[in-house]
Amino acid sequence: MYRNVSSKIAWLIALLIAAGVSAVSTAPADAADFGPVKSMKVDAKKAALGKRLFFDPRLSGDAAISCSTCHIPSKGFSDGLALAKAYPGSEGFRNTPTLINAAQKAAWFHDGRIGTNLNDVTRESITETYSMNMDMRLMQERVKQDPIYVKMFKDAGYGEPSNGSVRKAIPEYLKTLTSRGAAFDGGKMSDAAQRGFELFKGKAGCAQCHSGSRFTDDQPYNTGVPNNPEIWSNPLRHITYVAFSMFMGIENYMNIRRDVGAHIRSHKSDGSDIGKFMTPSLRELKQTAPYMHNGMIATLADVVAFYNRGGGNDVNQDPRIKPLGLSSQERNNLVAFLEALSGDALTGPEHVWKDKINVNYVAISDWLQKKN
């Protein structure tokens, strides 16, 4: 788990410096801009290649898990678990976020440690030891051995398969995962949802952070979400957090019993940034339970109740988190609005590679000498 630590730390430090600046400087979205999520311009052939790669288990070290193992289309490209799975021999310590609309994020992961460069996001997701544990040089040779990939890379304009092109093709596919069909976008909300929307913008104060078409300002806050004790009681989850903390330069990581969140971006000496996490998108919530960065809240009704109480209990809690005084009916209306932000499941062939990926192909003879 600790192989190539020095080089990895150097790379991550450089990455965090670059990503931290872009993420922190991102201006909050206009709270009034609650329109549909706009589709992104996509290169169809590059996206088709990225789709096959996304569902291909050969991109993991043991050739047993793919990106879609945790980002499951029928679960809103999340996994339905409180805490994510991880590469065999470890378990995850955070909730798997949806990838729907994720290509439009200003900062990635629950701590916002990587900015808008999806190439970097793809690289970390594939190579990190507790994610897919793949040496990209090996991945490149696996891809080169598959005649279907040889043709797809060429048709997409990438030429010979390479790990750099993999890191471009998968993000192109992610651009296709855009919300559609939500009652909110089609003007088909129920009366209860309409009332909930007014609460969302007004009395409940949700729009202070959940703004823009994706309903997030892409900024980190501490709302007092309780820690998930499973992370430290389960050795496989704890060792994953220890490895992550070491790579991120978190001090005293062997004795920490909480997820420090966005602290890894700024490392404030007074610790006032500990426990901050990125504002999640509110799109597709019906598909992506349980909620929060550590899966500690099971239902939307529970989420609304949590904020109605004034959030959790944390020394660094954002001062804007206060008891809301919502009645039972108002809470129900707010839930109805949140549900109206979910649309059609992205489970058709446009978004899912339906054909079997045959890993028992006939290898290309004398492949070292082959030229595309």
Could you describe the largest sheet, including whether it forms a barrel? 2 strands, antiparallel
**CATH architecture classification name of one domain:** Orthogonal Bundle
**How many individual β-strands?**
2
- Overall form: globular
End-to-end Cα distance, whole Å, is 36 Å
CATH topology of one domain: Cytochrome Bc1 Complex, Chain D, domain 2
Cα-atom radius of gyration = 21 Å
Supply the number of helical segments: 13
* CATH superfamily label of one domain: Cytochrome c-like domain
The CATH first-level class of one domain comes to Mainly Alpha
Sheet/helix structural class: mainly alpha
Strand content: under 5%
Protein traits:
372 residues, mainly alpha, Cytochrome Bc1 Complex, Chain D, domain 2, two-stranded antiparallel ribbon, 13 helices, disordered N terminus
Structural commentary:
By secondary structure, the protein is mainly α. The protein has a domain at 5-29 and 39-180 and 347-369: Cytochrome c-like domain (Cytochrome Bc1 Complex, Chain D, domain 2, Orthogonal Bundle). It is 35% helix and 1% strand. It contains 13 helices and 2 strands; from the N terminus they run ααααααααβαααβαα. Strands 1-2 form a two-stranded antiparallel ribbon. The two termini are 36 Å apart. The model is unreliable at 1-31 (pLDDT under 50).
Helices and strands in order, then pairings?
Elements: H1 5-24, H2 44-54, H3 67-70, H4 118-127, H5 136-144, H6 147-155, H7 163-174, H8 191-201, E1 220-221, H9 230-233, H10 235-248, H11 263-266, E2 277-278, H12 300-308, H13 328-339
